[in-house]
Design brief:
Elements lengths: L7 H27 L11 H32 L4 H8 L3 H7 L6 H5 L2 E7 L2 E7 L6 E6 L5 E3 L9 H14 L5
Helix pairs in contact: 1-2, 3-4
Length: about 180
């Protein structure tokens, strides 16, 4: 069993806890939507009740995503790498970087050489890991789009990384 798997007993306990937490939220959402008392939630056609439950799961899903991002950012602030975050979430390092782009400060985490680039209202950070001969970039463009070097290959030189970062920033500038 991998660390991401849970036992059937743990699964049952988790589902029970989640349903116990969800029912009051579903009842409150249904009461607000219909003007009926919360204790009348189940006195409705099954489709209405199940749609209320579905709406409550959407609220829970959004909150879980926020808490997940907070946990990733906290782990990154304590020095976790994207490789470690990915392993904890069952995804690749690259997938973790895309999922939580602000979680790890690559320069601080690796002791890497770095540089920065500001262009077209956006900014990018260039990094070079001492144990690698490759340069990488990560940035946020003026339109709010996050971008980074493609894959694990990086770039041969700092200038090449800067050129790719610059092209990204220019492509995502805000037009007035």
């Amino acid at each position: 069993m991998t660390s991401l798997e849970i036992t059937p007993t743990e699964q049952t306990a988790l589902e029970s806890s989640l349903l116990d937490a969800l029912n009051p939220l579903a009842a409150a959402l249904r009461a607000r939507a219909t003007g009926l008392a919360e204790d009348q939630m189940w006195d409705a056609p099954p489709v209405d009740v199940t749609l209320s439950v579905l709406a409550a799961w959407k609220v829970v899903d959004a909150e879980v995503k926020k808490l997940t991002e907070r946990a990733a950012n906290t782990a990154g602030s304590y020095g976790a790498s994207y490789e470690q975050l990915g392993a904890a979430w069952g995804i690749t390092r690259q997938g973790a970087r895309k999922k939580w782009p602000e979680a790890v400060n690559r320069t601080a985490a690796s002791g890497a050489e770095s540089g920065s680039l500001e262009l077209c209202g956006g900014a990018a950070v260039l990094t070079h890991n001492p144990s690698s001969t490759r340069w990488y970039w990560t940035g946020r463009a003026a339109d709010g789009t996050h971008g980074e070097s493609d894959g694990d290959s990086g770039h041969a030189t700092k200038e090449e990384a800067a050129a790719h970062a610059g092209a990204f920033l220019q492509a995502h500038r805000t037009v007035r």
